[in-house]
Amino acid sequence: SLYVSEYFSQSAQKLSFYSWYGNAKLFHFHVPEDTVLLRWLLQASRGKGPECTNMEVTVHFRYGAPPVINPLGTRFPANATVRPSYNISMTLSSAVQNNTFVNITTPAAGDWFIAAHLPEAAGRIEVKGFSTPCTYMFQPDMFVLRLIDMPVLEPGVAMTQTVVSPAKPLHVKVFVPKYTATMWFELRSCVASEQKACAVRVVLGSITLPQSFQRILTCTGNVKCSLGLDSPPWEKWLQIMVENLGTASADVSVEMVASFTACKPGSTSSFLNFSSLNQSQTGPRPGNTGTAGSHALPAGEASRNASDQRSFCLQSQPVVREDLDVVSVRYRLLNGPSVPVYSVFPTLLFLGLNTGMDSGGSLVVNLLLNKTSLSLANATVLACVSAASPVLSPNATQNCSTAFFQGYPLSVSASSTEAMLIVLYPETSDWFLSLQLICPNGHGECNNAEAKVTVVAYLTPCFNDCGLYGQCSLLRRHGYLYAGCSCKAGWSGWSCTDDTKAQSVSAQNLATLLLTLSNLMFLPAIVVAVYHYCLVEASVYTYTMFFSTFYHACDQPGVAVLCIMDYDTLQYCDFLGSVVSIWVTILCMSRVKKILKYVLFLLGTLFIAMSLQLDRRGVWNMMGPCLFALVIMIAAWVYHGVKRRRCYPSSWKRWVFYLLPGITLAFIAISVYAFMETNENYYYTHSIWHVLVASSVAFLLPPREKHKKPWAWSQKLTCRYQICQNDREELYAVT
Question: Where do the TM regions start and end (predicted)?
């Protein structure tokens, strides 16, 4: 045998702490056909700084679709199918890098996915620039060993092969045609060299994760061994591996044969279906006394169809796949939304999800039983949703299993007429929906019975669009697209349906009121600024109060939301007003000349607007203007102190009752903003930030200049006699 090794790699990605599926880093690989060995090299590393601590990296594997994971232990939506993913943990302790190997023998060919993430996020809101987070990187590499010219086992033709040693098993493959009901594998002879006892193990199928359904057959001696497989995967190559369980020096010669039993489908042709569809749309033709789309058949042909119907293995219903958008597909039945279901044979619907871009959403199947069409009240319609091959004998004991796949059961009856199934991230394959009428007393009771079931099937990026408290996000890894739900207001879960930690409506209203009404603390600062003739500063505070109020009213995660304009515009104006307020306050305290102050006001505002456009959440967008303004203020105060030969400001009352309280409030506000805010306490810690900053501004604003008189509102509003001075100049005309 000739083996070829191949190597595949993807670029490293920075890992994130887990809070929703978007934090997991996804890697997409394609395993070629005839692969007999797959080896993953998982490389995890961390930085070398003191902020890097011991960390555990969780890696999930799945065949055919992204892994369905639940690190937070939240609830999935009702009627959703969840099977635990296969995962391993990699620990980064004293070593900076951890390399782990994962070997898979006879892996299934096709798409394989790896998802990696760090433990649950702490929920602390970190200000960008205050701290340097540790960097954790992850990179998987894939090595495959592929067999060239793998022997092909033809149906019904015996093949003789030799297993050289236990270290080199024999690999053959057989193609399973469409409409195969049963595959029968038989090991007719097993002869060992050196007259030793023959012992071999036959493994049928490939490994798929998280679940593997390989069938194992152990044969000893020269005795025929056989194994039957119901509903093997249609139109796929099936790998068969034969291992020698004897000694290393003994060769084993085996003779094997595979045979198939076909399942004859009974369905009308596509031409007749489209013809009936067109007739149903245009209405009955003139002179036709029958219903639209009906066809009158002669008595002989009708009896012949009835006899053929008894020989059918299944009844196939034509389904049209209609692509709506990215990871969005609707399946439309040509013969109408209702399909007839019988007890003699199953009704089969084909749901194609084999484009390679359909596995990033959710497959939803809805069944609705028409009670008036059910002739037997105690009958039940059993449905099975399966991949690769259909369930051809759905009954209560088989539990919807095929040869290499565990299907998903559904049932409707007169007592329960509706059923729903949600398959999260369905694997890339041909999917089938099988329906059959089941009677409690056997098939003889309902041989002539029939039921009408309305089938609605579609592929959606996020089930129910993540609900009221979630946002459906389309994620991308290179050219592969998949969807995930980002929850808010304390809701969690795959589709944001877990309300264990959800905020009540009253709590949401309270959070909105705290974050918006706390901005009214700028009113004292505005009054003080107007009283001190700082009209420009008062205008800036009014601007900040307005946009901060409505930004937080629009930024709420729940139902208490009010957006007067675009969210991005409100956020930008809020950030701009906050930084400019600090800028003008410190410059006002410096007591520089008016013309210089207003020039600095304008230049600083323009620079702040530019920097916020580059990075709104960077700490230096706020700290940079603050530090520069503090340098100007300290320089101005030193200049005034040297000029007057005394400390500036000179009044101890100004220091004790205004400056020190204002500086203390400002430092407390910065500490709360930078180190205490989390996702859970945000609504009251950020409200405290609003109150403290606005209060500190009211204390820090300097008093008005001595030569300026206070606003004389009483003199302007009081009606009384006044002695007026005539300042008019006499103009004399010279003639």
Answer: 510-533, 595-614, 620-639, 655-676, 682-701
| Residue tagged 């205008």 (tokens) | 539
Q: What token pair was written down for 131?
A: 């701290």
Our measurement of the distance from residue 281's CA atom to the centroid of its chain's CA atoms, rounded to an integer in Å, reads 40
Q: Which CATH number fits domain 157-262: 2.60.120.260, 3.30.70.1060, 3.40.50.1860, 1.25.40.10?
A: 2.60.120.260
CATH 2.60.120.380 domain locations along the chain: 3-123+133-147
In terms of C-beta density within 10 A (0-12 exposed, 13-18 middle, 19 or more buried), how is residue 275 classed? middle
Question: Residue 434: is it exposed, middle or buried by C-beta count within 10 angstroms (0-12/13-18/19+)?
Answer: buried
Can you list the alpha helix ranges (DSSP code H) found in 498-534?
A: 505-517, 522-531
Indicate the class that CATH gives domain 3-123+133-147: mainly beta
Q: Start-end ranges of CATH 2.60.120.260 in the chain? A: 157-262
Per-residue pLDDT at 267? 54
Q: How far apart are CA 617 and CA 121, in angstroms?
A: 20
3-class SS of residue 695: helix
Q: How confident is the model at residue 496 (pLDDT cuts 50, 70, 90)?
A: very high
> CA nearest 366: which of 391, 338, 402?
338
If residue 239 lies in a helix (H) or strand (E), which one and from where to where? Answer: strand 236-244
Residue range(s) of every CATH 1.20.1070 domain in the chain: 505-700
Asked: is 313-460 a CATH 1.10.260.40 domain? The reply is no
The whole-number average pLDDT for the span 201-217 is 90
pLDDT > 70: percent of the chain: 87
Rounded CA separation 611/629 (Å): 16
CATH of domain 505-700: 1.20.1070
C-alpha distance from residue 558 to each of 14, 491, 561, 683, 684 (Å): 31, 10, 7, 12, 16
The tokens for 589 are 């305290």
Buried b (16+ CB within 10 A) or exposed e, 515-554: bbebbebbeebbebbbebebeebbebbbbbbbbbbbbbbb
Amino acid at 241: M
Q: How far apart are CA 708 and CA 668, in angstroms?
A: 34
Indicate where the chain has its CATH 2.60.120.680 domain(s): 313-460
Q: What does the alpha-carbon distance between residue 116 and residue 67 come to, in Å, rounded to a whole number?
A: 10
DSSP reduced 3-state for 596: helix
Conformation bin of residue 496: beta by default, left when phi > 0, alpha when psi is -120 to 50: left
Beta bridge partners of 122: none
Say if residue 692's pLDDT is above 70: yes
CA nearest neighbour of 548 among 524, 514, 525? 514
DSSP notation for 75-125: PPPTTEE--PPEEEEEEESSSSEEEEEEEEESBPSEEEEEEEEEEE---B-
Structure tokens at 224: 């025929």
Sign of the CA dihedral with 373 first, then 378, 384, and 389 last: negative
